[in-house]
Amino acid sequence: MITLIITSPTETAVYENALSVSLPAFFGRMQILPGHAESFISLKKGDIVVKQSNSSEDKIIQIAGGECHIKGDRAAVIL
Question: Which residues contact 74 (CB under 8 A, 6 or more apart)?
Answer without folding.
Answer: 2, 3, 4, 5
